[in-house]
Amino acid sequence: MALRGHNDLIHDLNWSLSDDYLVSASADGSAKVWNLSDIGRSDLPDKLNYTENDRYFFHGQLLHSSYVYSAKIFPDPAA
Questions:
Q1: In Å, how far are 4, 40, 41, 55, 71 from 44, measured between CA atoms?
Q2: In what order do the strands lie in the sheet with 21-26?
Q3: 79 residues of the chain, pLDDT tens digit each
Q4: Alpha helix (H) ranges present in the chain?
Q5: Cβ–Cβ under 8 Å, residues 39 and 22
Q6: Phi then psi dihedrals of residue 38, to 5 deg
Q7: pTM of the model
Q8: Nearest 5°: phi and psi at 51?
Q9: Of the candidates 22, 27, 45, 46, which lies 20 to 30 Å from 39 by C-alpha distance?
């Protein structure tokens, strides 16, 4: 599976403790959060192109005025 969510270099990737979420930091001025908890679902098509993968797994983004060099998912203390 591949994700195409960024338009420039990805500087950092960080997984959540549960491995359900991935955050990516990019030179395109964004940090994006991906929900990968459904990655093993059998009803998802096997051979998706990159753009279609984004639609299934994209959770949200934080936009910045310049490059984003790192990103981290911190555990929820309430969980």
A1: 17, 8, 6, 12, 28
A2: 10-15, 21-26, 30-35, 58-63
A3: 556 778 899 999 999 998 899 999 999 999 999 988 877 665 666 555 556 667 778 888 999 999 999 999 987 666 5
A4: 50-57
A5: no
A6: -100, 15
A7: 0.76
A8: -65, -40
A9: 27
Q: Which tokens in the block code for residue 32?
A: 């994006």
The DSSP letter of residue 27 is T
Length of the chain: 79
DSSP code string of 57-74: HEEEEEE-SS------PP
Token pair 């984003």 is found at: 68
Other beta carbons within 10 angstroms of residue 27's beta carbon come to: 15
So what's the pLDDT on residue 46? 58
As given in the structure block, the two tokens for residue 41 are: 């679902």
Please give the structure tokens belonging to residue 7.
Answer: 């338009």
